[in-house]
Amino acid sequence: MIPPNRCPLCCGESLRVLEEDASPYRVLRCRGCGLVYVDPPPRGEALRRRYGSEYYAAWVTRQKTGRKRLWAERLRIVESLVPSGRLLDVGCGEGSFLVQAQRHGWEVAGTEISAWAAEHAERRLRRPVFCGELQHAGYPPRHFDVVTLWHVLEHVAAPLPLLEEIRRILKPSGRLVVAVPNVNDRVMQVAYRLVKRRRPRLFSLQDREWHLFHFSVSSLTRLLVLSGFAVVGFGPDRGVVERSKRLINETAVILSRIFRRSWYNAILMVARQA
User: Fold this and answer.
1) Mind listing the pLDDT tens digit for each residue in 217-231?
2) CATH of domain 15-273
3) HSE of 146 in the Cβ direction (CA atoms, 13 Å)?
4) pTM of the predicted model, to two decimals?
5) Strand 36-39 to strand 25-30: parallel, antiparallel, or no bridges (unpaired)?
6) Domain residues of the chain, as ranges?
């Protein structure tokens, strides 16, 4: 248990307040490890209420084609690491990624805290999807060849126990694939300021979705190592559906390569058991 008023990653006590106008929540940055996070983290029902049918409405309508391409590309990444086997998608949403994996011959499983999304995914997969936190799913140890977290970890109130459970159920030869927004997405932040005439907020009670953690490459690496993983590699996650944002992100990827920085919109990281 992390003591109050300490960083949940490094237990540091030197914290800077970045935002504090969403009472009782504040956004803090640890001066030691650089982790940015919401304190206190919303939990339980407060989180589940954010992810009803209205949250997924665009996914299954106007974004459906774009997301199909997105999931196909992500499946290619997974299959470049592990060709086939048992795959668990944590926070599987309405099941689109698992549907594609299943068609490619994977033995799939999913967890999802949204009752609406879990039920939708079950109908599409014709197999059970666990509705709730992964720690309560009861999967056997060393069971999965691949576990994926596609833009899920930033929504979780307690990432460390989740990752420790993933390590328990992942085969020693297996791979964990994590994608999260990048707190250092400098190019997108500049574009936002130019268009909106204000800086992007890190947390608001009115947000469509709540990001409780904001990771950089270094803080995500540190979290995975603390959870018992070794990072195999990382790079940009190109999971952007909107065309305009995709163009900005590709510009950020190019600039990141030129200046040897991680300025892209989101991070894709692959890990194995240490």
Assistant:
1) 999 999 999 999 999
2) 3.40.50.150
3) 25
4) 0.94
5) antiparallel
6) 15-273
